[in-house]
Amino acid sequence: MNTLDGHVVIVTGAGSGIGKETALLTAREGASVVVAEVDAKKGTAAANEILASGGQSVFIETDVADEDAVAAMVTETLNTFGCIDALVNNAGIDLEGPTTSFSTENWKQVIDINLGGAFLCSRACLPALRRQGGAIVNIASVHANFGFAGAAAYDASKGGMVSLTRSLAMENAPDQVRVNAICPGYIDTPLWDHFLAQESDPEKIDRITRDSHPLRRRGIPLDIAQAVRFLISNESTWITGTTLVVDGGMGAQFFQRSFD
Ligand SMILES: NC(=O)c1ccc[n+]([C@@H]2O[C@H](COP(=O)([O-])OP(=O)(O)OC[C@H]3O[C@@H](n4cnc5c(N)ncnc54)[C@H](O)[C@@H]3O)[C@@H](O)[C@H]2O)c1
Asked: Deepest of 5, 65, 178, 228, by most Cβ within 10 A of its Cβ?
């Protein structure tokens, strides 16, 4: 018996990184997985990988910031699998720069995809989730809890996701729909590729991002996927409205010192 046998799980942004690992893990645990992804090539590849290993999956091309596309994705999910047990709001982008030169267009893009996408997908899935109870997991970030210079839009979008989590949890608890957030530390995924490409000293970035975690490594997508699996499974039926920080201890430290 697997932890997610019979579950239907939608993972947004499941073509890469944390979302892809979550799709693969939840499929291995018995779920039928909807890969809701804006990039058709990556989305198709993720769904095919699940099918090739004997799991159940369908790719549905979806821009989470597009209301009509989200509605169509939910309709297709219900036509294909009949119900929705869990939604993982994972799709996200990170555009950064000093606020005084940060364009309105970039601000809107970050907020519309990261926060707006979580709202649109949750709103569209809730009627189905309420039918038998279920779970939503919002992939926020340690950026929800700390200020990072040059990351106003990203920080605000992730802080908004944590607030959205609490509101949705309160609104949907009577229908046994649990809503939780995860705040990951630095995870090795392609999200960082464009930052690293601009960096003159990649080794320094490697060291800083590793050493800012007391456990002395960056996370891997599986670290987050396992937390998602827990929060959508029947192992967490009394957990709602909370934030699980999965950050190698980053948030627990005030400053680093060594007694070595
Ligand atoms: N990597 C990290 O260090 C880290 C840390 C904290 C939080 N996160 C969050 O985790 C989530 C996943 O990030 P990742 O690191 O796996 O990045 P990633 O770039 O590897 O994956 C993000 C996926 O989302 C998809 N996507 C982007 N815009 C979309 C849209 N409008 N509609 C649907 N899909 C869209 C991309 O095509 C991509 O497949 C993001 O919300 C990110 O903010 C990442």
From this structure: 228
Domains of the chain: 8-245 (3.40.50.720)
- Give residue-wise pLDDT tens across range 40-68: 999 999 999 999 999 999 999 999 999 99
Query: Is the CB of residue 35 below 6 angstroms from any atom belonging to ligand 1?
Result: no
Spacing, Cα 259 to ligand 1 middle (Å): 37
- Please state the atom number of ligand 1 nearest to the C-alpha of residue 218: 3
Rounded distance between C-alpha atoms, residue 3 and residue 29, angstroms: 6
pLDDT at 53: 98
From 18, 22, 39, 49, the mutation candidate for ligand 1 (largest count of ligand atoms within 8 A of CB) is 18
188 CA from centroid of ligand 1 (Å): 11
Mean pLDDT computed over 137-159: 97
Q: Which of 154, 157, 183, 229 is catalytic?
A: 154
- Mutation pick for ligand 1 pocket among 16, 155, 192 (CB with most ligand atoms within 8 Å): 16
Instruction: Tell which residue, 10, 68, 66, 14, has the closest CA to residue 37.
Output: 14
Q: Return the number of other C-beta atoms located less than 10 Å from residue 204's C-beta.
A: 10
Statement: residue 259 has pLDDT above 80: no
Give residue-wise pLDDT tens across range 185-209: 999 999 988 777 788 888 888 888 8
| CB of 31 closer than 8 Å to CB of 7 | yes
Confidence of residue 23 (pLDDT cuts 50, 70, 90): very high
Q: Which of 25, 32, 37 is nearest to 84 (CA)?
A: 32
H helical segments located in the chain: 17-28, 40-52, 67-81, 104-110, 117-132, 152-172, 193-198, 202-211, 221-232
